[in-house]
Structures are given as structure tokens and as C-alpha cells.
Design a protein that fits this description.
Keywords: Golgi apparatus, Membrane, Repeat, Transmembrane, Transmembrane helix. The chain is mainly beta and 1237 residues long. It contains 9 helices and 79 strands.
């Protein structure tokens, strides 16, 4: 039980001044021992609980409520039991429970002893604590066994006629549940005996039922839950208390017992492994609470431990899965109260947040594994710290005058420390937002005086206890009152209705806006005799008065009032409600006979006019039976109307409504009228479909516009001859077209049409005259042809018989083959001139006549041949390639050679001064081509024989020429071809100058300049570099646009011969003159690091590897030495491969390097690069063995340097290759393992 009671819920009744709310020490709360004890009494709804205060007075508390009680002397506080009832104390395992039972000689829980009359109340002026049996809830189930140990489950049934109550005075969290009754404690012998008898019966039932069976006359067990959730015990009368511990509940819930098996005493046990795992999950220690704050605390716990048992072997021990899940739950109603889950996870600690200050909490932990849930641990109690109060609500105005305001407020939650003072601040009516203190004290109300009338003041409130000051409440604006308002203006009518009037009025002009003014609207009904009665009282400026009578007069007035008083009423005004709309007229009826185009209808006035006279009647008419659209046909005061202008054979719907001052009435019932049908009206004349034929015509028509109110079922067509006025019927039927045959060609006939419906045939339509068509013309005679020129022929023909219609068109077909002729002329003429023909070509032609009747057959085909002509124009001219250009010589040169008698090989033509052309041979038009004429524009035309290729010489380089060709035969010269523009290429470039810009013993870098200045900028100039080999032949080294080239892999001291050539699109230029360049001698190769051998403290021997002679030139060596950080100085120069260095200083470092020198035959020396440096460290003042080790270390360092520097390029490349191979294998393994699998 907590040292502070949780705040009461809404609806609880408990005086905050009771002295029994003192807080006991936590030790007394948990152990139930000590000088003080606290008990929490739960009062159920509909019940009352009577307590006695310290001053001797009685206080009655009605439920629902929770009453905390404290006993300062260690005994249960006195609780009065109603007459006829006694309290019995049951003590078991150190926990006391109180039973309130009817006063009877023997207590038999399972018997039935009816209670006919309720017990009298305990006091004359106080209600009874025990309610009437009729309003009591059903009896409870009593469960023995206290939380903290594994108890046996047994049920005890109490009859509904025994309103027994169970209470517990234990101080631990097992005292009361959420719905527990307060305890009544009277320790006497009778209570002890009842306790002993009850314990005996409980033990007997446990022995008979096996700890879980049912007893006769006991209610059936509650439905079982699944194994995943522990069962809950339903307490029907609200007393409660979960007396069964969590472990036993979980085992019972997971045992899956069947009702039939329980009767036979058979139980289905869990397998040993599951039971062992369940026992392991249930063996969890209670959690530890640390870092307790006002609104949070830290909870720590440990994993469940294996229970110690002698019978358990190593093989039977369950395997604890990893990880486990834990659930932390807390309760504020006791250890056996309702718990709420606050954390669920796999960790072993959690921070509980959102707690209430100064509140007792009970926390427990529960282990979970898959579908098994262990028993909760023992609950641990802790109390949160106190803190400053919660922010109070804003103060409210309880009363006020023109110069004062009385403020009240409610106490906020004190959070464990009693509120000592309240701090009320205000802005003094300045409205600047700056607040000053106007009251500080413990009271909950305060009166602010000396204020200004009709002014606004802002207030805020804060509470203070021993822990600190709360935050301020929200700012509230309050106003002081004004003087009594003046009489307002009379109300005005804003809107009127049949049973309501909407009135509005104005605020008195003299009253300020800050004053709270209220209004009273009074109404007097005419001839009622009750006078003015209030209809509205409020602060609004408008109100709708409802539930009035229609067309009635009412009087109104309004008065204003505030806190200072009430004004005189305004002047009286009268308003009248509107009349109601009339009821619908009676259903209209037909008067007389219905005509095809009209009918007469009549109606009766409505039975209820709504309080006003009917002003007019409105008749609406709708065509059709659906009534989709209505049309107004009459509006007036008469009670009948003739509807005319109707369609015959059509259905109409009509209705009527009336209108008065009150509005429009509902529509009357609908009257349906059907007008009779008449024969259809005249049709439109039939029309001709297509062209009339010689012996028949096809006619088509449409239905008449007026069908007479009935569908048209038949049509009749009559024909009138060309020379008589008699008509005859040629068609009768429902179709809308027909074909009339047996007519004469070229005659005019008249046709008429009439339609019929169920009422008969209508009139004939107007006459439609149609003339039959004539026949097609006869076949024409064969046409005649006359050649005017090689490309023009005149064709003429004669007109054939017309067959009753003049020929309107002739069609002439022309073609080169008899089966592929096409129409080339269509017209009324008897001749046609064909142009654009090819000379010396065969053509075929035929003619056909056409009139309005159709197309006649074609005439016989006639063959026509055009005469020969000059050749056609050359279509295309092509430029010969350079390879083809060298194969042909000039015809003129060839003739000269033949005349001279000497035969020379064909000359090579330059594309810069020659143009080789070829062309396609044109059509000769029946006469063989004898020659061609080549026109170059400015030059004299060139005549060549019947060839199709020719090379034009002696042209200017890089020059464009316009060329056209003309063919000639025996009949004349043909037309020139189109002009083709051809261009000669520019002259090839001259060779550049060749220079050597860099050289070594194995390479030569050559450079050449740009081409000659005459080369066009647009040309791409490239170079061709060649070198002479040992056989005197020039081989190609480089060919491209660059101007430099490096010749590698040459021999030392050797002369090489080069030449260069430039070329571009114009061709290859001449080679340059020969250039000779010589490579220098090569220097010696670098030596490896020399070896050092210390002889004594002042001398050492330096040795190095020798080099062989280079092409007969001897090799000498140069040894340099450097002491400390000075410069290198030459110590030796000669052909020896070792040197003894003397006069060394003992404490100085020496560095040595050596290079090879080539003694050339021309007395010049070539020095090679120096070898790596070797260091000689000074001799330390140590033992000889240490010195030897130092010397060995120096050699070792030299050798290691030499080993590191002796790696070749091949070895480095192989090492890198191996590293990459290992990395690739690792990457492939990772991809195979993590990605693919």
C-alpha cells in the first residue's frame, strides 16, 4: 500500500479534511507491522460506507469511492457493521482477512438459508452499508492462498440469499482488489471459531477434489484461456482479490484439462521438457528499482536461474533458449491488483516514464520464451518522489459589481506535498501584459476592490507547496459591471413564417461594449388574456419565437438588464405570422367527349385554404405516360379549362394546384387522357434512287410528318403514263422503297404516294416525274493516226450510233503495248494530238464512246510507229578515279603516235592537270550515234568518237570546269546534257626540312616543318618518313599528320640515313634529299652498392663488382666518400675494384659510392651513374663481441639494402600479379557465399 492515496476519480465523495489520510512509513506498509497501518476501502456504486472521524462525528460516503484509512495504534480502524451482521477475521500465513456474515448459529457456505427481510440500518440518520438483497450483485467466489507462495485452488459458493462480504486487513499489496469492500474488524472468540471451521472445510475439499475439482452445489468453472495468456478470475460481486499466485495460474492454464477427464480424475500432463522449461522461466528473482524520481524510475532484473532439486539430473535440465523476452508490468492498486505492461523486450533494464509523483507502485517481471510464459516474479514496491503542484486552472468570476470582482479557483493536484499558498497576479487593467501580485495566501477565493466600472482585467494563478511553485495558469480576462442599461429600441421583424417569427433588437447605445447585458423578450398573444409572457432571456440580439399560430397577431417588447439591474421595457410592437399554404385541390375530371385535338377538364377547390383565400389555380399538362416534363397551360380563378392544340392518338397527363397568400399547395392527383387517332397526313413525293434505267426505276420515300396518332402500317404507290391521266397501283406494303419495272426507255412517268394507319389511308402526295434512261452507245470504228513529227501523232475517229442519247464523251487509250494501254484523253472531240513521244517507237491506240446511259465497247486497236530522230540528251556524267585515269591515254596523242609510226606505252595522267570523265550512252532514237561533243565553256569544244570515256588534258590545277556533252547521229545533233561542275586537284606538296632535336646512344628524335606555303589551308597535310637499311633500301618509319618522331632501338656511335615525303589529297610529293644523323657512345651501366669491411678503428676496405669492356674501350672507376653531412669527395680513381680507406675518425659516419668511367679511343671519358650509398657507422666503445655484432649489423643492413634494391622489374610485376590474383579469389569467394547463396 502506498504512503499516499491516488487521487479520487470523478464522482467520488471524500472530505479532504479527514485526519485518517496521514501517510504511514513504507516499512509498515509492506510488512504489515509497526505502529501504523493503512487500508484502502473500495465503495461500490449504489452502496454507502460510514466512518467515524476523530471529532466523534459520523460521515457517510456513497460509492463509487476509494477511502484510505489509517490506524495509529496498529489495529484495524473501527468499521461499523450493520445490525444482524458480524465480522469474522481469518488469519493465514500472516495475512488477515475479514468476513462480514449474517448473524446465525452456524455458518454453512454451501447451504441455503433465505433471508426474508433486510437488516435494519446501523443508525437512524445514516443509510445502511449493506444494501438490500434485491439490489446486491451475485455472490462471490472465495479463493484461499495468498500471493507470495504457491497455494491450492478451491472454490466456495455463497448463496444469493446470504449477502456475505469478504474483506482483508493485510497491509501488503494483497489487501484489496480494485472492487474490494472496506473491512470490519471485531476480534472475538466467535470469529476465531468461524475461521477454524472454514479452514477445515477448505482442507476437506482440497483432499476430495485433488486440489482442482468442483464441489457439489458450486458453480461451474470459468472458461479456460489459451496457454499463451494466464487466466483471470472473474469476481461477480466486485470484492475481488486474485488469491491464486501467478505461477499456479499459468500451470493450470497450460495443462489443457478437459471437463470429462476432471470428473474421472484423469489429467493430461505436459511433457517433462516443457514442464522443466516452464519451471525455469518461472524461477526469476524480483526486480530492483533504482534512481527513483518524481515521474520516472529505473528497473533492473536478471535472467531466470535453474531451480535446485535433488531429483533433477543433468540430462533432464532444459536448454535455455537465447535470447529471452521480458515483460515489465506495474500496478497502483496493490501487489494483487491490476497490472499494466510498461515494457517488453530482451534487455535486462528499463526506465519507467510517465509515473505520477508521490504514488505507490508495484513492479514485477515475467520471462517469455516462444509460446511459453513464465510466472511473474515477486512484486517490488516503490514510491515516487513528491514535486511541485500541477498548474491550476484559471480563476473564475463568482460575482462582481461596478467596482469589485470576486474570484474563485480550485486546488490542483498537490503531487505529494500539501499546497501552502496561492499566488494571484493581475495586470491592473492596463492591458500591457505585465502582471503584479494582488494576493498571496492559502485561501481559494479573493475579492479585488477599487476597480473601474465596465473595465477589463487579466488574471493568472499559481500554486506553491514545500517542493516549489507550479507554472501559472492560462490568463483569463474578466470585466466589471456597469450601471443599469437604458430601455432598448423596440424589436424589429427580421423574417416571418407560418408558425414562427424571427425578431432582432439593438443594444442600448449608452451601454459600453465591455458590459455584459442580457435581454428579456416578452410576447402577448391576441385575445389570450395572459398578458406579456417571457419568451427569451439571454445575451443574443435576435431570437426566433416558434410554435405560433398561422395568420395570428402577436405583441412584443424587450427589456435589458445587467448585474446592476433591469431597464424598462421597450415600446410594444405587433407582428402577424404568415398564412399556411392550402391543401391540394381534388383530382380533376373530364367534361364531355375527348376530341382528337382537345378535351375539357374540371376540378373542385381544396378542403383547407390555409387561412387565406385562393387567388388562382394552375393547370399543368405533360405529354406521354411518364410525366417527365410538365407545361403550364392555364392560370386563373376558374374551376374548369379546355386543353386544345393536342396531338391525335397521344396520351396526356394533367394535374392542378392552387396558390394563396400562404404559398403554393401540393399537386393534385394526376389525370391521364388519351386522344383518338386520325388518318395520317400527306407524304412527301417519292424520290428517285440512283440513275433511272432504261426499263425500270427505283423509288424511295419517307413516312408522313403527321401519323394521325397511330403508327403508319402501309404505303401505296401509283404510276401515271406519259400519254394518259389514268393511274394504276404498282406497289402496296410497309417498306419505304420499291422498284418499278416494265417501263419504256426515254419516257417520262409520274408517281404518287399515300400512307395508311388503323384509321385508314391519307391523301395522295404531289406527283414525282421520272424519265427512263437511254441505252449505251455502239462500238466505234478503228481510229486513224497521222505522224506530224517523230514525237507527235494526231489520232482521229468517228462518232458511233447514240442509242437514244447523244454521246457526251470519248475516251482514247494509248500505250506502248497492246495489253497495257491507259486513258490519255477524255472529251467530246473527234481527234486528239499525242505529244512527247519517243522517235522510232511502236504505239497502240483505241477509242470508246460514253453517254448518259453508259459506256460503249472499245474499238479495235491500231498500231502506229513514230519516225527516227536525233539522239537524246546525255543523262549523267561521272568523274574517273585515279586508278582508272592511268589506263587511258589521250585519243589525240594516240592518233599522233599512229601517224608517226611509233607506239608508246600509255602516259600517266596527273589529276592536277587532267580530268577523266565517263557518261551513260543516250538513246539513239533509231539512228546510230556517230560522235560526242564535249563543251568546256571557255575552251574550244572537243569532238570524240562513239565512246563513253575520255581524259581531258592541259587543265589548270585546283580549277573548276563546267562540262556538258552532246550526242550526234546521221539525222543531226541532240540536245546538250545538264551542266556538271568538276574540279582538278591541286599540285602535290614539297618535302619539308628534316632536323634532329634530341639524341641518345639508342634513340633519335626527328622533327620536320610544315609543307610549302602554296598548300591550301583546308588540305590535310601528312608526312611519310623513311630510313635506309643495311641493304640500301628505304623502309617506312612513320606515316601520319605529326611533325615529330622518335626512332628507337638504335646502335651507339652509328650513322643513319633518312628521307621524308609530304602528301595530301592532291597526291604524294617528291622525296627530300637524304639526311644523315649519328648516335653518340653509351655511358657505362650503374654499379651495385659497394661492400664495406672494417679493418680497425681508422681504416676499412671498399670493394665493388667490375664491368666488362664496352666495344674495346677500357673501364675505370671513381670512388667518392662523404664524412657526416659534408659534400662527397673523390677518394680513388683507377681500374682497381677495391680500395683501402685509412685515417678514419672513430666517432664519424662515412658514406661511400662508386661509378664506372668509359675510356673512349678519342681520349674522351663517359661517366656512368653512381651506385647506391653505403654507410659506415662509427666503432662503439663496447666489448669486442659487441663491436663484431655491430659490424655484422652494418653488413646485414648493407646486404638488406642491396637485396631490396636488386629486385628486377619482372620480379615486381610478378609480385603485383600474385597480389591481384589473391584479391580476386577473395572477392569471388565473398560473392559466392553472401550473394549467390
Amino acid at each position: 500500500m502506498a504512503d499516499r492515496t491516488p487521487p479520487l476519480e470523478s464522482g467520488q465523495l471524500l472530505s479532504p479534511e479527514l485526519p485518517i489520510l496521514a501517510s504511514p512509513t513504507p516499512s509498515a506498509m509492506v510488512n504489515g507491522e509497526g505502529p501504523q497501518q493503512v487500508i484502502l476501502v473500495q465503495v461500490n456504486p449504489g452502496e454507502a460506507f460510514t466512518i467515524r472521524r476523530e471529532d466523534g462525528q459520523y460521515q457517510c460516503i456513497t460509492g463509487p469511492a476509494q477511502v484510505p484509512m489509517m490506524s495509529p495504534n496498529g489495529s484495524v480502524p473501527p468499521i461499523y457493521v450493520p445490525p444482524g451482521y458480524v465480522s469474522q477475521i481469518i488469519e493465514e500465513n500472516g495475512v488477515r482477512r475479514v468476513l462480514v456474515l449474517p448473524q446465525q448459529p452456524d455458518f454453512h457456505p454451501g447451504g441455503h438459508s433465505p433471508l426474508h427481510h433486510p437488516p435494519p440500518p446501523p443508525h437512524a440518520h445514516l443509510p445502511a452499508f449493506i444494501p438490500h438483497p434485491a439490489m446486491m450483485p451475485p455472490p462471490p467466489h472465495l479463493y484461499t492462498g495468498i500471493a507470495g507462495g504457491v497455494g491450492d485452488l478451491s472454490s466456495q459458493y455463497i448463496s444469493q440469499y446470504h449477502p456475505a462480504q469478504f474483506f482483508s486487513d493485510q497491509v501488503s499489496t494483497d489487501s484489496l482488489s480494485q472492487h474490494g469492500r472496506p473491512s470490519f474488524v471485531h476480534r472475538d472468540d466467535r470469529a476465531s471459531k468461524a475461521h477454524e471451521r472454514l479452514q477445515k472445510k477448505v482442507k476437506e475439499r482440497q483432499g476430495v477434489g485433488g486440489g482442482g475439482g468442483q464441489v457439489k452445489d458450486s458453480p461451474p468453472p470459468s472458461p479456460r484461456k489459451s496457454c499463451n495468456s494466464p487466466p483471470t478470475v472473474d469476481i461477480q460481486n466486485g470484492i475481488g482479490g486474485k488469491a491464486l499466485d501467478a505461477e499456479h495460474r499459468h500451470v493450470v492454464a497450460c495443462s489443457d484439462k478437459q471437463t470429462g477427464k476432471e470428473k474421472n480424475g484423469e489429467l493430461k500432463e505436459l511433457d517433462k521438457e516443457t514442464q522443466a522449461l516452464l519451471a525455469l522461466l518461472s524461477n526469476i528473482t524480483k526486480p530492483e528499482v533504482s534512481d527513483i524520481q518524481a515521474r520516472e524510475a529505473v528497473v533492473n532484473w536478471s535472467d531466470p536461474t535453474r531451480p535446485e532439486s535433488e531429483n533433477t539430473t543433468t540430462e533432464e535440465e532444459p536448454v535455455l533458449p537465447d535470447p529471452l523476452s521480458y515483460e515489465i508490468s506495474i500496478s497502483i492498486t496493490g501487489k494483487d491488483g491490476k497490472y499494466q505492461s510498461k515494457y517488453s523486450g530482451e534487455g535486462l533494464s528499463a526506465t519507467l516514464e510517465g509515473l505520477r509523483p508521490a504514488t505507490d507502485y508495484h513492479v514485477r517481471v515475467q520471462a517469455m520464451c516462444t509460446s511459453l510464459l513464465g510466472s511473474p516474479s515477486e512484486a517490488v514496491s516503490f514510491t515516487t518522489l513528491s514535486c511541485e503542484p500541477d498548474p491550476p486552472g484559471p480563476p473564475r468570476k463568482s460575482s462582481g459589481t461596478k467596482n469589485s470582482l470576486t474570484l474563485q479557483w480550485k486546488a490542483p493536484c498537490d503531487n505529494g506535498s500539501k499546497i501552502k499558498n496561492y499566488n494571484l497576479q493581475w495586470d491592473e487593467g492596463k492591458g500591457t501584459g505585465v502582471f503584479e501580485q494582488c494576493y498571496y495566501g492559502p485561501q481559494k477565493q479573493y475579492r479585488v476592490t477599487k476597480l473601474s466600472p465596465a473595465s477589463r482585467y487579466s488574471f493568472r494563478l499559481a500554486a506553491k507547496n514545500d517542493m516549489g511553485v507550479s507554472e501559472f495558469s492560462e490568463v483569463v480576462d474578466l470585466f466589471t459591471s456597469c450601471s443599469v442599461p437604458l430601455p432598448p429600441f423596440p424589436p424589429e421583424l427580421e423574417m416571418a413564417g407560418v408558425t414562427w417569427l424571427c425578431l432582432k433588437w439593438q443594444r442600448p447605445s449608452s451601454s459600453p461594449k465591455e458590459d455584459d447585458i442580457y435581454y428579456i423578450l416578452e410576447m402577448e398573444e391576441e385575445d389570450s388574456g395572459y398578458g406579456f409572457q417571457p419568451s427569451y432571456d439571454g445575451e443574443e440580439l435576435s431570437f426566433t419565437v416558434r410554435n405560433l399560430h398561422r395568420s395570428s397577431k402577436y405583441k412584443f417588447r424587450v427589456a435589458a438588464y445587467n448585474s446592476e439591474g433591469k431597464s424598462n421595457p421597450s415600446q410594444v410592437v405587433e407582428f402577424i405570422t404568415k398564412p399556411d399554404r392550402p391543401s391540394c385541390p381534388c383530382r380533376p375530371v373530364i367534361r364531355g367527349r375527348v376530341q382528337p385535338d382537345s378535351f375539357r377538364m374540371a376540378w373542385e377547390p381544396p378542403k383547407e385554404n390555409g387561412g387565406a383565400e385562393i387567388t388562382k389555380y394552375v393547370v399543368e399538362l405533360s405529354e406521354g405516360v411518364t410525366g417527365a416534363s410538365w407545361e403550364l397551360v392555364y392560370s386563373g380563378s376558374a374551376l374548369e379549362h379546355v386543353c386544345d392544340g393536342l396531338k391525335p392518338g397521344c396520351s396526356y397527363r394533367t394535374r392542378v394546384y392552387c396558390m394563396s397568400e400562404g404559398g403554393q399547395s401540393p399537386l393534385s392527383e394526376t389525370l391521364q387522357v388519351q386522344t383518338p387517332a386520325v388518318p395520317p397526313g400527306p407524304c412527301q413525293p417519292p424520290r428517285l434512287v440512283g440513275k433511272p434505267k432504261a426499263r425500270e426505276v427505283q423509288l424511295r420515300w419517307g413516312p408522313p410528318h403527321v401519323d394521325g396518332g397511330s403508327p403508319v402500317t402501309c404505303f401505296s404507290v401509283e404510276v401515271i403514263g406519259p400519254q394518259s391521266d389514268e393511274s394504276r397501283e404498282v406497289y402496296q406494303g410497309p417498306e419505304l422503297d420499291c422498284t418499278v419495272g416494265g417501263l419504256s426507255p426515254g419516257r417520262t412517268y409520274g408517281f404518287q404516294l399515300k400512307a395508311a394507319n388503323k384509321a385508314g389511308f391519307g391523301p395522295l402526295s404531289e406527283r414525282c416525274e421520272v424519265t427512263t434512261g437511254p441505252g449505251a452507245p455502239e462500238q466505234c470504228k478503228a481510229p486513224s493516226t497521222t505522224c506530224k513529227s517523230p514525237s507527235c501523232v494526231v489520232v482521229s475517229w468517228e462518232a458511233p450510233p447514240c442509242n437514244g442519247a447523244p454521246v457526251t464523251e470519248f475516251r482514247l487509250e494509248w500505250g506502248a503495248a497492246e495489253g497495257s494501254m491507259q486513258v490519255c484523253y477524255s472529251g467530246a472531240g473527234l481527234s486528239h494530238e499525242m505529244k512527247g513521244l519517243l522517235p522510232a517507237t511502236n504505239y497502240f491506240c483505241r477509242v470508246q464512246a460514253v453517254n448518259v446511259a453508259g459506256v460503249g465497247p472499245y474499238s479495235e486497236a491500231v498500231l502506229c510507229q513514230t519516225p527516227c530522230s536525233v539522239p537524246a540528251a546525255v543523262s549523267n556524267i561521272y568523274l574517273l578515279k585515279e586508278s582508272e585515269l592511268q589506263r587511258y591515254g589521250s585519243p589525240m596523242d594516240a592518233d599522233e603516235d599512229e601517224e608517226g609510226g611509233a607506239i608508246h606505252p600509255p602516259l600517266a595522267f596527273s589529276p592536277s592537270t587532267c580530268l577523266g570523265i565517263c557518261w551513260d550512252a543516250p538513246c539513239d532514237h533509231g539512228s546510230e550515234i556517230t560522235s560526242y561533243l564535249i563543251d568546256l565553256g571557255e575552251k574550244q569544244p572537243i569532238v570524240v568518237g562513239p565512246v563513253t570515256k575520255y581524259v581531258i588534258q592541259n587543265l589548270q590545277p585546283d580549277t573548276s570546269y563546267r562540262i556538258r556533252i552532246q550526242a550526234q547521229n546521221s539525222l543531226g545533233t541532240g540536245a546538250f546534257s545538264h551542266t556538271f561542275k568538276l574540279k582538278t586537284k591541286p599540285l602535290p606538296p614539297q618535302p619539308p626540312r628534316l632536323e634532329c632535336t634530341a639524341f641518345s646512344h639508342q634513340t633519335l628524335r626527328l622533327k620536320w616543318g610544315d609543307g610549302p606555303a602554296k598548300t591550301a589551308a583546308s588540305d590535310t597535310l601528312q608526312s611519310h618518313l623513311q630510313m635506309e637499311d643495311k641493304n640500301g633500301r628505304f623502309i617506312s618509319l612513320y606515316k601520319g599528320p605529326c611533325h615529330t618522331h622518335k626512332v628507337q632501338r638504335l646502335n651507339e656511335s652509328t650513322s643513319y640515313t633518312f628521307r621524308i615525303q609530304a602528301f595530301n589529297e592532291a597526291g604524294e610529293g617528291p622525296f627530300s634529299s637524304v639526311y644523315t644523323f649519328t648516335t653518340p657512345r653509351s655511358p657505362p651501366a650503374p654499379l651495385k652498392a659497394p661492400k664495406l669491411e672494417r679493418l680497425d678503428d681508422n681504416s676499412c676496405e671498399v670493394t665493388w663488382e667490375p664491368l666488362s669492356h664496352m666495344k674495346g674501350d677500357p673501364i675505370s672507376y671513381s670512388l667518392q666518400c662523404m664524412m657526416g653531412n659534408t659534400e662527397f669527395k673523390q677518394a680513388y680513381k683507377g681500374s682497381a675494384t677495391s680500395f683501402l680507406v685509412q685515417n678514419l675518425q672513430a666517432n664519424s659516419d662515412y658514406r661511400f659510392r662508386v661509378c664506372a668511367i668509359r675510356q673512349c679511343q678519342d681520349a674522351t671519358e663517359l661517366s656512368g651513374p653512381y651506385s647506391p650509398t653505403v654507410t659506415l657507422t662509427p666503432q662503439r666503445s663496447e666489448t669486442v663481441q659487441g663491436g663484431g655484432a655491430a659490424g655484422s649489423g652494418s653488413r646485414t643492413g648493407t646486404e638488406s639494402n642491396r637485396t631490396r634494391q636488386s629486385l628486377t622489374d619482372e620480379q615486381c610485376a610478378f609480385l603485383l600479379l600474385m597480389v591481384f590474383a589473391v584479391i580476386a579469389i577473395l572477392i569471388a569467394f565473398v560473392i559466392q557465399y553472401f550473394v549467390i547463396k
